[in-house]
Amino acid sequence: MIKNLIMSSILALSMNSISYVYTPHGSGVLVQVHDELSSFQIASYNSYTDSNFPLATRIASSTNHYNCHSYAWYSQNINTNIYWMENPSLYYADSSYHEISYNQVQPRDRICYFDENNYNIHSGMVLWLTGEVQNPVCGYSNTVMVQSKWGNKGLYQHKGDYCPYVSTYNGEASYVKFYRLNETHTHSFSYTCMNDIYHYEICSCGTLLFQHNFELNIVHPNINNPSYIPEYVCKDCGFMALNPSV
Ligand SMILES: [Zn+2]
Ligand SMILES: [Zn+2]
What we know:
By secondary structure, this protein is α+β, with helices and mostly antiparallel strands. The chain has 4 helices and 15 strands. The chain has 2 domains: 2-181, no CATH class; 190-241, no CATH class. 16% of the residues lie in helices and 32% in strands. It starts with a helix and ends in a 5-residue tail after the last strand. The structure holds zinc ion (ZN) (2 copies). Residues 191, 193, 199, 212-213, 234, 236-237, 239 line the site of one zinc ion.
């Protein structure tokens, strides 16, 4: 009886936390909602990963709300994405996305890291090409800069071969593949502020986070004027700052 009670409450808990999101071609992909980390865990995960990957830039904090696959395939809006996705393979198995070769890759294509059993262990968004030739670390991963979420750790901007998923850092990935949304369209960008450092650059094919593009905007242009105010405005999203940190 007690055992049944315990089992049914566990089931109720896990049932409540399961949902589906849909690929562009309508396949349902299983996602879960996890309880958030404690603030202590968030702080210690952030500092642990930051110190182990000093050449990567953390864009957002550790969180249980979304993982790499959910970020790359479901939604790059980190304020609203609360889904954890274990297996994104339907996004390419149902032809919503198609594989492209490394020499066709462009920003906003997806990069997936596969292990020796051909299981996709990590996904990310391609930011730009590094111009490097392939090195021995993990397929063509070093030829791109990537924006990706590291499990329940932070969202990072990193070179493709500089992350916890490759052999250099005891990861299991042995090669990467690249995928592109299976529709031809002309990018149409809009911008939304994320915080005082980053804004979203949004297109229907994917969203990337970039640092604000500040330019000086002097409200009262005469420096001898007592109300002279040098302020900075992002040319893209319009965010204003007096002392921008970027
Ligand atoms: Zn686009
Ligand atoms: Zn901006």
